[in-house]
Design brief:
By secondary structure, this protein is of the alpha/beta class. The protein is built from 9 helices and 8 strands. Helix 1 crosses helix 7 and helix 4 crosses helix 5.
Length: about 280
Amino acid sequence: MAHAWVAEKHPLDDLIRRDRMPHIWCPGCGIGIVMRCYAQAILESGIPVERHVVVSGIGCTARVPGYMNLDSYHVTHGRPIPFAIGLKLMKPELMVTVFSGDGDLAAIGGNHLIHAARRNVDIKVICINNFNYGMTGGQVGPTTPLGAKTTTTPYGNPEHPFNLPYLLAASGAVFVSRWTTLHVRQIKQDILYSFRKPGFTFIEVLAPCPVGFGRPNDIEDGVEEMRLYRRRSVLVYRVPEEVPWEALEVDLREERPIYVGRFVDREREVFRPVRR
C-alpha cells in the first residue's frame, strides 16, 4: 500500500501570506508565477528579509505586495517609483523593488519611470506586461499593440504602443531584460542578478491576461498564450547587433518572434543625493 507524503511546510510559507489566500487573480493569469519567482529570489539572495521592501501602485500586478510577508507598500496609481526612491535615499541599506504593471508604470507612472532610469536610482523594477488595464475592465493601455481590441478600442487600438525595453535602454537603465511567464528560471535568475547590480534595473515579464486581453484578441486562454510564448520566443544575446531595438515590439496576434533575453547590462554612476 502506497503511503501519502505530507509536507508540513512549504519553502515559501514565511514569505507568502497564506492568510490572504485565495488570491484575486483570474484563472490563467501569470502574475502569481512571477510573484513566486520574486519570493524564491529573495530566499536565495542571502539578503535578510527585513532588508527587502516591495512597492506597487494600482492594478492587478500591484496586488502582489499584499500577498508578500515582508515590508510592503501599496501606493497610489502611478506613484510606486517616487515612493521607492524616497525609501532608498533615506535607507540606502534596503533592497527596494517596485513590482507593478505596464499601465501603472508606463502610463500614469511613465514620467517617473524614465526619470528614475535617467538618474540611475538604485531601485529594482519588475514590470508585468499583459497589454491592457486588466483590473479595471480591460481598457487600452500604453503597451496594447496597434490594432488590438480592448473594451475601449472595440474596433482596434489606433495608437502605437511603447516598446518598453527600448524605452528603458534609451532612458539610461543599467540592466534591461525581458522574459515571459514560461521562463521561470530566467526570471528568478535575473531578479537575483538585479539585486547585485547597482543602479536602476528593469525586468519586463510578458504575462497572460485571458479575460482582459486574450479573449477579445482570439487567444483562447492562459494555457494557449503560454504555448504561444513557447512557440515564438527567441533568445537574443546582443541588441542591436542581432536584432534592432524596433524588433523588440510585441504583438501576440501576429506570427512573429517574441525576443527575450538580457538586452542591456552596463555600468553607470549610481545616483547619490547631494548632502551638505
